[in-house]
Amino acid sequence: MQFFAKARYRFRTDPDGFLHRLIATWCVADQQAFQRKEVYDLFMKDLHQVFTEGKGPETLSQELAIYRHYGFSVADLPAERRVTLWHGLADNIVPATMAWAMTQTLPNSEAHFVPGGHFVAVDIASQIISRLRQLLDNPADAPAAVGHQ
């Protein structure tokens, strides 16, 4: 993992510079979210754990593998179980087309494509929680087929 070794060196040499360069590659919505000190600081703590503690390359490899191979087919999920997805339309880390493709495979999904980037949940957490509470309180409110908003 030569890439990881270079990234680790760059992070350890200049953590803030590393994160600023990373943020500069993201969409405007994510750049704005990271202007908030609490968001920036939390992510910096995560980067510190990845690059200075534990087994960064191995952990990163495991995480990336999860997103490719779930160990089962999502099409085989029970149709009575609801999956709700939220995705920022300006996300340039994971394109919205990937979330859209997932909704076409899931047997019972609800997708919300909203303005924002990869870290859109930071700004719309209350909206997400409200929808989840609604689904928990009134399961009949969940559309029977894939719904898009």
Query: What is the chains' assembly state?
Result: single chain
Helix content: 55-70%
Distance between the termini: 40 Å
Side by side, the strands of the main sheet go 1-2-3
The rounded Rg comes to 18 Å
Number of helices: 7
Which H/E pattern describes the elements? HHHHHEHEHE
Q: What's the total number of strands?
A: 3
How would a crystallographer describe the biggest sheet?
Answer: 3 strands, parallel
Tell me, rounded to a whole number, the average pLDDT: 88
What does this protein look like?
With 149 residues, the protein is mostly helical. It is built from 7 helices and 3 strands. It has helices at residues 2-13, 15-23, 28-33, 37-52, 56-68, 96-105, 121-137; strands at 83-88, 109-114, 147-148. Strands 1-2-3 form a 3-stranded parallel β-sheet, with helices on both faces. Helix 7 links the parallel strand 2 (109-114) and strand 3 (147-148). The model is unreliable at 145-149 (pLDDT under 50).
Q: Summarize this, please?
A:
This protein is mainly α. Helices cover 56% and strands 9% of the residues.
